[in-house]
Amino acid sequence: MFLVPKGTLVKVKKARAEFYPKNIKDHVTKKDNLFDKHEVVLDPIGKLGCCQNDHVIGGHYEKAGYYGFLREGWQVIVSANKVQYLG
């Protein structure tokens, strides 16, 4: 499980939207958010089998140290140093 604590600045985009700047919005979390490993779509440490692709912007976020989580039609992009791994 991964925890993104309340009050964390994250970036969000609709899941099917392209990684264009106009589609990515800043957001501050209003509650603690728990994500399971099957919800991880960007993995900066490469341990969960996510593909680090240099040719897409999502891959650049991943290589820059961001996690991406997919839930309910939204992708949440958050810096790895803000994510707590709970096991």
What's the main sheet like? Answer: 5 strands, antiparallel
Overall structural domain count? 1
Write down how many β-strands occur, each being a DSSP E stretch of 2 or more residues: 8
Low-confidence blocks of residues: 52-56
Helix segment count? 1
Spatial strand order of the main sheet:
3-2-7-6-5
Overall spatial form: globular
Helix content: under 10%
Strand content: 35-45%
The radius of gyration computed from the alpha-carbon positions, rounded to a whole number of angstroms, is: 12 Å
Q: Overall pLDDT, averaged?
A: 84
SSE string, helices as H and strands as E:
EEEEEHEEE
Distance between the termini: 6 Å
Q: Structural class, please? A: mainly beta
Please give a structural write-up:
- 8% of the residues lie in helices and 38% in strands.
- By secondary structure, the chain is mainly β.
- The protein has one domain.
- The strands form 2 sheets. Strands 3-2-7-6-5 form a 5-stranded antiparallel beta sheet. Strands 4-1-8 form a 3-stranded antiparallel beta sheet, with no helix packed on it.
- A hairpin with a 2-residue loop joins strand 6 (66-71) and strand 7.
- The termini are close together.
